[in-house]
Amino acid sequence: MRKILKRIKPIKSTESQKMMEEYIHYYESLPIVKKTILYESREGQSLTDSPYAIFKYLLEKDKEKKYHHIWTVQKSDELNLIINRYKDIENVTFVERNSNEYLQALASAEYLINNSTFQSFFIKKEEQIYINTWHGTPLKKMGFDMPDNPFNARNVVRNFFISDYLLSPNNHTTNMYQKSYRLNDTYTGEILEYGYPRIDTMLQDNQAYLHSLFTIFNIDFDKDKPVILYAPTWKGKNIHSPSNAVHQIHAEMSYLRKHHGENYNILIKVHPYLYKEARDYTPLKPYLIRDVIDTNELLSITDILITDYSSIFFDFLVTDKPIFFYAWDDDMYVNERGRYFSLEELPGPISATIVELSNQIKNVESYTEKFQENYQRMKEKFVTHDDGKATERYVNCIFNSINSEKKKNSKTNLLIYPGGMTNNGITSSFINLVNNLDYSRYNVICFIGFTNRKEQIENIEKITEKATLLFRYGTPAYTKSERKLDSYLQDYGKTGIVKKNYPQQAYIREMKRLIGHITIDIAIDFSGYSIYPAKLILAFSDSKKVCFIHSDIVADKNRTVDGKKPHEKSLTNLFTVYNDFDVLLSVSKITNDINREKLKNLVNQDKFKYSVNTLNPEKVLSEKSPKKTLNDEMKIEIINQQANVIEMAEVYEAVPINQSKRILSHIEANSEVEVIAKATYLDEVYYKVRLENIYRGWIAGISIKIKPDTIVSTEKVDYFALLNTSARCYLYSRPYNIDGCYTISTAGFLRNLYVNIDEIVTTSSGRKYFHVSAFNEDLGWLNYNNARLSKRLNGRYPTIVTSLLRKITMLTNRFKYRNKKQLIENRLLFEAECEGFARLDLPDNDKIVCFEDSRLSRPLETNLDLESTNQLVKLLKVADFQGKKVYKIQTTYLETAWVESHYVEEIELSDKELLVFKEESLEAKVLLKEGTGIYSSKVATVFSDNVKKTDSYATEKKIFRTDGKELLQLQDNISQGTLSLVDSRQAIFDEINGTFNSEGMYVPYPRKEDKIFNFVTVGRLSPEKQHQLLIKAFAEFYKQNEQSHLYIVGSGAIKDDLQRLVSELQIQKAVTFTGQLSNPYPLMKRCNCFVLTSAYEGQPMVLLESLTLGLPIISTDIPACRYVLQDGAYGLLTKTNDVEGIKNEMIRLYENKDSLNFKKFDYQAYNEQAIEDFYKNIMK
């Protein structure tokens, strides 16, 4: 019945799908129109930059009008004034962006020229010639060099990759294409390095034309004065409020005008993203260069350029005129984006304030002479090709085929889809494989899906730079009928109607959209768990198509978790296309035999092959771990708040940490300042401030008081929205930071719940908040970004229809998430931070009813490893729970839980009382800047906020403070030692015997001198790994051998359940959950035995890694592990795969640790064979 309904149910299209469907219609039906050129500059907002330079050149040289020129535009009154220059030229046409005419031109023009990117729906035809000019030599880091999510580069790298020509003014920009965007040898187009067409316009006479535009736009300009142009770049995330940025620009340029206006025209050219706000600010209009005026033409009449990080300064080098860098926000910007060059390399002086800049301009001649060497060095590096004839060279090459050389590719092109890139064995195996490939033989494209989680980003960063990264994103290139078939395929696989009408053309078209027309020789679905990537891999009809199988795949399909089979549907559907692959590649011989047997009635047996996963021996054996300071680096947060100066404040050029304090000025007490950034380092806080819209510098946090925000606008609404909250989201009693606001509760548990929104406010900080309710209960205020508003449920249809749709949606949503009502009723209310200490009074049964953050509706009984009736704990938070006061506590072993207040007796520590929580082993070396060394054998986490340099403590241990306050050392030669303080800002922490997990928590390594027998397991915390068997077996072992410890490395869905089991078995002291470790191997190496207790595996890489480390191994006796351990030659296999079987092998290994001899594993020979087997199985 569901299949029938699926076939007859009408399919609706979103706005982006309608656009795609319209474009596909023209793409499929329209032929290429020869000699037609479509130009697009900055998404159609102007006729500028290199496309404009090429257009002007061709228009002038093409006397016979052989070419038809089409410009993409977003119409505006200002742009119309530019368009009018060409309205009477018959071979020049203008089409509005995203109109039908635009889609037709995009689908039919022979030449496409863009200085940025075409939208994600664009599919380049093979006959089209796409020229991407880009828009500047990069000073700011670009592409995958940026400290950001690589997925953010998706559309730029796609546009570069599918282009036929990339224009480059210099070798640095060429490297940007090849390295920063990793086009490498995979790129099939040409990178032409002939200079910049847009710089040609600077070397032309534009004065009369520009003066006429200044008159039209009422720009205040004196033809007899030289020109100072201020052109700041876009700051991206660094700007919360564009209006405040505009006010600062106006105030600071007014300051310059006051001091230099008699001698100079002072003009302002803002970035296009800021232009609308600047244009609407009346005081700025007389000096604001309109967005439609070409920047390079403007530079031709500029005498002094002031900029920050804008790439136009590279262009300006051809003029030999002075450049000043006003870098007032450099500390924020570098923290956010990064640069390719240091400030010391720049061809002009840098200033931190407008006063400093003004003084530099007064001495322009001396500064010009001072920076002459830098200037000439940069000219030689960046503008050697710019002689005014760059456009001519490009036109001759591209349009006239002069000196054009298409490079030949002799390598095999391999495309591989890795899966979700989360922390699991598949991801590790994929990274090992692509990093082991021979890049002299293969061009490798890693075809990656949506990524936004930290672990995904970190894993992508582990991929070798030799591989090209392309991404799956955007609206798929399907027609409405194809979309319906695709939906059926996702739900039911290649069966029924889809088997007869498989939409292969849709998938071919989609891959052309995403990767262009490159020939793929081998296409691999490495993920192997879903039909979604499989259908796209199978779109390469002429390629060899491979699907990896990482496990006993039928067992995985039938695996049950919490009463459900998570992989049943996806794998059942994937099995329906198995026969369409050329090779089904299992990751071990035994797994291949199992899969061939179980799927013999479904799949052609000849397709089954195997290739074992490769290792990364260098990483496994390396002791390297990134150096880390004892405290995090200085954190800079971009904010936008008002504050009062409460005492005269010194103003510093930079945050005065780790450097001399250069005082710029002072700000008087009672002044009102605008705070634009907050820097935190240890206990010190500094604020970056503006005074009367002029940037002043950094001042100490103790000198100012932040004012509450105010509400600047309120809008009554009737919205229906889906929440996308996370664990770090909170509900507030009023919009955040408004006077009287307090935290009501967390909001992460409300994710995916539909709620009603009745009011939206904007605060003085520029942030928006909305008021929400659900289940007829007022929930509070949330950040505006934590909701998704569906047009379908908010105004697209008449009121009656919208109301009905909301009711249906709400009923479905409320039923699906009916447990959330109970969670709302049981949520913690009025949650607040709490500092202090307490003793716990135990009830008679020695158990305390407590609650975990993630299960507030289910009280847990646990003893929390409390050792005495006056157990000391740290208080973290206080809240109201079901009308009762509760505290979040932290125990000696760093466990946390919520307990009711009647168990808690708050206490105060004396100034000299030291409360030490969980002593941790560490062989650490602290290197001081002076070169001296301090060594310790113990580290303790110290919770005391009253430690002073003169305090004394009765202890014989050295103690380093590691809680982000100070680094403390106690003399150990006397029991009543004198405390000495070492400034941790002067220290670097060498992770000799410890590491940090993905959450930033310190994890000490096992110590041989402690004479503890250490077991370790590594893997995802999920049911099939059977950690509960290991924990129970270890608990039994521990009863007999208390000098033992179990390390559980990894993270996953059942972590809470496992920790609860450890508490129930009362073995908290002997079990460490390390969390996710980026490099677990040093910890593994220091253990005595590796244990794997999986129910099934494909090829257990962690066993191979343990063998590489030389670790003794205990494993459950399952086919894949038996195969790796060669029936016990390399390690112990359990006699029975249960608690008793695992415990017995633990005892056997412990009692015979010196007499058991296992075969030595040759990891080098293994890896060489593994990669050769892979080549053999994938070659066509």
TrEMBL record:
Listed Gene3D superfamilies: 2.30.30.170, 3.40.50.11820, 3.40.50.12580, Glycogen Phosphorylase B
Xref: CDD domains: GT4_GT28_WabH-like
Domain of life: Bacteria
Domain GW, residue spans: 669-699, 713-786
GO cellular component, one term: plasma membrane
Entry annotated with the keyword tRNA-binding: no
Membrane topology: Peripheral membrane protein
Keyword line: Cell membrane, Membrane, Signal, Teichoic acid biosynthesis, Transferase
Domain Glycosyl transferase family: 1013-1155
PANTHER family: TEICHOIC ACID GLYCEROL-PHOSPHATE PRIMASE (PTHR37316), TEICHOIC ACID GLYCEROL-PHOSPHATE TRANSFERASE (PTHR37316:SF3)
Similarity remark: Belongs to the CDP-glycerol glycerophosphotransferase family.
Protein name: CDP-glycerol glycerophosphotransferase family protein
